[in-house]
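seq as requested:
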Amino acid sequence: MSQNAIETIVIVGAGQAGASAILELRANKYEGKIILVGDETHLPYERPPLSKDVILKPEETKIEILSEQKLADLGVETIRGNGVVKINSEAKTIELKNGDVVAYDKLLLATGGAARRLPNFDALGKHVYTLRNLEDSQALVPVLQAGRRLILIGGGVIGLELASSARYKDCQVTVIEMGPMVMGRCSPRILSEFLLEQHRQNGVDVRLETKIADCRLEGEEVVVTLEGGEELRADAVVYGIGIVPNAQLAVDAGLDVDVAIKVNENCQTSNADIYAAGDVATQLREDGLHRRVETWENANLQAGIFARHVMGVEHPKANPAWFWTDQLNINFQFVGDMAAAEWQIRGEMDAAKGAENSFVMYGVTDGQIVAGITVNAAKEMRHLKKMISKNTAFEAGKHLDLSLDLRKVA
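struct tokens:
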């Protein structure tokens, strides 16, 4: 089928990847029909603010990516609150919850992921929360009140962002993390230790290498028993221990799935007319391995790859992976390989300075800059991205000299 013969593209999942795919398709002059199917009733919205501004400033926070008017202007047919229950890849159709059948020429699965569950806590029902969608975030607004005791299970990005928001609201906060580090999956140890110190200085009780033995409700209190026997009491518990990709549709359709939907470098699944992007996809990388990346940027990148491949447009060279987090009035941005062999600091990393900190970190492997981190220095991020893309050799005398503009040494 030639690109011009593609009449209908169906996008399942009205999140970041789905919305980006629409914008990319129209930007690349796709003139056929686009149908966006979402099981949520909302229009596509941004998820990063859910743990921050949606809780702290719900009235003034706008998270919508594509408005009703914008979707109409782009000629997109939207189906909301009526998710897909089945893919018939031979007939090239999808079946919706209400029984309707929709035909496609190309199908994009951008169904994201669901919170990984803790059944023991779910069984308590009352006062136990997760954070994955807009309703979850809105439910936490009345929970985070001054003086309330909050236990956060999981010391990853979401857990720490929620800890920051809860402290801003003057809650008493305890973070329980099974691993030896906070943000252990995505941060080098040196920055993890800095983050840990920031949270502890701001009154967050962070428990590392801590396992939970039991939990129960006593009246309006949640009682969490740690493995050593200590009991923690809270008014509410929020857990965030990762996600489970929403890949069941693909499994049922016979597509190749590991933990998520396996896709090639073009975001195609094992069926050439079905693509996947975002948190639900594990993509073939340059090193020949399949990896899944849970970032806002990756959802956009993969949506772009899908759109350009459908349109027969060449992909630009991939940028090094980038993400950010805002905690305790500090902006952290990360790019490249966080498993770099060594880290060099440009400026002063001083835990005592808190939100007044501003510095840059280089991740160096075999003498080459392979990663970068900015702390309250966002304007330097593009220079770090450039250095990584150019395989720049690290030179301490040049790269650590604060009198030199990073733009000139990039």
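Residues 37 and 79 are 5 Å apart (CA to CA).
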